[in-house]
Amino acid sequence: MRTNLTFDTKKLQEQDRHWVHPWEDLKALPKAERTIIAQAEGIYLHDSDGNKLIDGPAGMWCVNIGHGREEMAQAISEQIMRMPYYSPWSLGNVPASELAEKLTELTPGDLNHVFFTTGGSTAVDSALRFMMYFNNCLERPEKKHIISRADAYHGSTYLGSSCSGKARDKDHMDFATELVHLLPTVHPYRRPEGMSIEAFCDEKVADLENKILELGPDKVGAFIAEPILASGGVIIPPPGYHRRTLEICRKYDVLYISDEVVTGFGRLGHWFASEDVYDIVPDIILSAKGITSGYVPLGAVFISDRVVNRLTSKETDIGYFASGFTYAGHPVAAAAALKNIEIIERDGLLEHVREVGPYFQARMKELEEIDLVGEVRGEGLMACIECVNNKESKDPLTLDYEMGKRIDAHCQENGLIVRPMINMCVMSPPLIITRAQVDEMVDILRNGITESMADLHKEGLWQG
Questions:
Q1: Can you give the pTM of this predicted structure?
Q2: I want to staple 263 with a disulfide (CB 3.0 to 4.6 A). Which of 273, 338, 344, 409 is the partner?
Q3: Dihedral (CA of 1, 62, 124, 75) sign
């Protein structure tokens, strides 16, 4: 890593205002003063003022092998010099072909076909377009409706964002409401008082079947679901939910799409969570983020033999699946993914997550001792702290909606970046994190939450 670099932070912040960031508050843009990250190594970032910060979110859930891997830089550089690009339309390329075979060795069950995309959002959009093509080929032109869930997040394309169920993301935007239907939240923490977790699961499973019957099984093409609703606040559906909803999809011939953009490639200690954690083999799995550990963009759609064979066995013409991207199977991205997988295997990172993950969860759970914290939930190396106005009522509504940003600001002062989301903070550190680094991270988090709670007291926004 280059050291002793100097930056003019104020100038960089002024320059940064020309960049319309994702989820940008346009009214605040003229005065925005973001932290500017200049360097990174391992689990640490360095901002333009030279402050060292733990990368709590691992970028955006994605820097699984950690920052600054020299062998990744070398693999990327060598591929650029060997061949930086060629069209995926009519020819293959060496790293993409090798990656396709390697990935299908890692996927569960019979998911032996991979369609490369540029990232998670384009993977979602491609899978949904494939569902429509699939049903057109099977002469079921009305079987196109998509069922998703409240609190879900499935990307920023028109179809993907239409399937997302985060309420505040719906403001001032248009969506394919005629095609997409959102089920009520599967958030166990928000279940009715006195309802058992088993009864809650029964209700959530019934929500899916009832919606299919309401729309008509001949109209519903796909159910799209994250194993853990990551950006919704690391929401873990009740035990048995995934398996039972898959069975309902099979019953009504609805494609089950598992969005593993976050949970794939080690976040829960397995290549994929669908089978190893939740005992399901979906029709389609989506991936991105950890597939290259964020070093370069890449996404993938994995499709089962069961689904593909229904098309290839037809005697009638099924035409082309006319979908794809200029950068699909990009040789540099494929080389990065191959090296990323090699590092994860060689360094035993899946086993490391299964060993350090329970410790991470236990340390994070200790934060529930703080009066402001209603629940800490998570699995593997992903967790969410949800702040509430009152632990008994679980009411977040009168709490400062900038709570997550307050906590992040205090944490940054002490050496930690968190991902703030309204009244929540999400943590998903690089998979290489050690127990000692977990301790460091949680200690800073505790201080950040406590300091934020004191701020609210002073401002009369929270009485505890």
A1: 0.96
A2: 273
A3: positive
pLDDT at 4: 64
- Residue 167 is predicted with a pLDDT of 81
Query: How far apart are alpha carbons 106 and 181 in whole angstroms?
Result: 32
Are the C-beta atoms of residues 416 and 445 closer than 8 Å to each other?
A: yes
Q: Smallest Cα–Cα separation from 283: which of 253, 313, 319?
A: 253
Task: Check if CATH label 3.40.1280.10 holds for domain 72-346.
Answer: no
Q: What is the pLDDT of residue 390?
A: 87
pLDDT of res. 180: 97
Question: Residue 46 belongs to what H/E stretch?
Answer: strand 44-47
Tokens encoding 391: 């632990």
Q: Which token pair is 433?
A: 């994190």
Backbone angles phi, psi at 107, to 5 degrees: -70, 155
Q: What is residue 424's predicted lDDT score, i.e. its pLDDT?
A: 95
Q: CA dihedral in degrees (157, 161, 162, 163; nearest 10)? A: 110
Classify 171 in phi/psi space as left (phi over 0), alpha (psi -120 to 50) or beta. beta
pLDDT in the model for residue 442: 98
Which residue, 302, 282, 346, 277, is CA-closest to 69? 346
Scan for tokens 């993950």, then name that residue.
Answer: 357
The CATH homologous superfamily to which domain 9-65+349-459 belongs is: Aspartate Aminotransferase, domain 1 (3.90.1150.10)
Segments of the chain with pLDDT less than 50: none
pLDDT of the residue at 77: 98
Rounded to 10 deg, the angle between the 305-312 and 120-137 helix axes is 40
Query: Which amino acid appears at position 205 of this protein?
Result: V
**Terminal-to-terminal C-alpha distance of the chain:** 45
Domain range list for the chain: 9-65+349-459, 72-346
Burial 146-166 (b: 16+ CB within 10 A, else e): bbbbbbbbbbbbebbbbbbbb
User: Angle at the Cα of 254 (from 251 to 259), degrees rounded to 5?
Assistant: 120
